[in-house]
Specification:
alpha+beta, four-stranded antiparallel beta sheet, two-stranded antiparallel ribbon, 12 helices, 10 strands, elongated, disordered C terminus
Amino acid sequence: MASTLGLVPITRAYLSSYYDKYPLLPLSSHVAAFSSQLRSLIDDFCSHSPTTPDEKIVVDKVDCEIPHKIDENMWKNRENLEEIIYLLDRSQWPATVQQQATEDPEFATVLDQLRNKFEESLKTLQYFQTKNADSIFNTVMSYMPQDFRGTLIRQQKERSERNKQAEIDALVKSGCSIRDRYALLWKQQMERRRQLAQLGSATGVYKTLVKYLVGVPQVLLDFIRQINDDEGPMEEQRQRYGPPLYSLTKMLITIRVFLFLLWARVGAQKMTADQLTLLEGAANTYTCEFESFITFMGEVFANSPFFISADEVGASESRNDDYKEISIPAGKTHEVLLSVDSLNSYIAWDFALEPSKMKMDVGFSVEYTDSSGQNILILPYRRCESDQPATVPVLSTIPAQATAPAKPP
């Protein structure tokens, strides 16, 4: 069991400084260019021949809002990759396209190569997701007691995953669509998130189990409870690396809708060389840029810390927030109120008096106010010239008080 002594969960401020070491190169300008060209042709298809109700369900996806969360974007890419691979399968080629392929073997080869490229991107994405999920779980387990308690957690996860796979298998056997299957897959992913949060807060299916987890570090439970919060540490990742991924997700959806409408509109008229060239260019650009992004994010995730020392929290916070100079007259009190977002949040502080020929100090204490307005002491009153202790968990709004001396000691 790895030690968590002196550690706290990663903070958004710390991740910001960590991500500074991993700047992401901008996407190729071809991403926006091909997306724009494809969108223009989609509009042309729809203006020349109105969409049917079934077609409209697919076409409307090109204007859907792209998800904010990184993992939801990954699942959207997986779904649309599978849809494109399905459309590029020879059995799905329209009769006119099959005739062109018979007359021009090179034409068929290009379509087959595009399908292979998308299949490789799908495999890369699946490996990326599996590797990261296993890495997080194994890291969490490394901080669990290495006895029956850890075994119980593993058994619970294995049972849960078997049930999820059986649910997928049953749906596929019923003849579901790719869309239906991914709707269930995302539902299951959200359930994994809920279970992770339940483990951290000892609720739900883990309520009884966690009773046996005597000795499990609180810092671990805090970490797995807050890791996926909307405004938690991962929000820094979304802000930093989300926009390029959103562009790639949008591009892939556009490729899928274009190919879908192209197959639906190709009839007496053959697929043109310009259409094939555009599709090939867009496919090559997406697969290259997306796999580069996945490789980059894999490196970021592989080295990203889950826990850091309390000193590092203070250091990262101080780098991201300007210090404020406060003058406290002798005998007066200065109070700082901090709003705490949730139970078991952590706070840290850092202050120091300016150097002076005359020895000075201040009285300092920390307390919190519960919902009834009662003040409860966290840090007893003491006099000091500076202070930067380990972070501490709190339960409510914190008033921190510093009182200047009536006269120099």
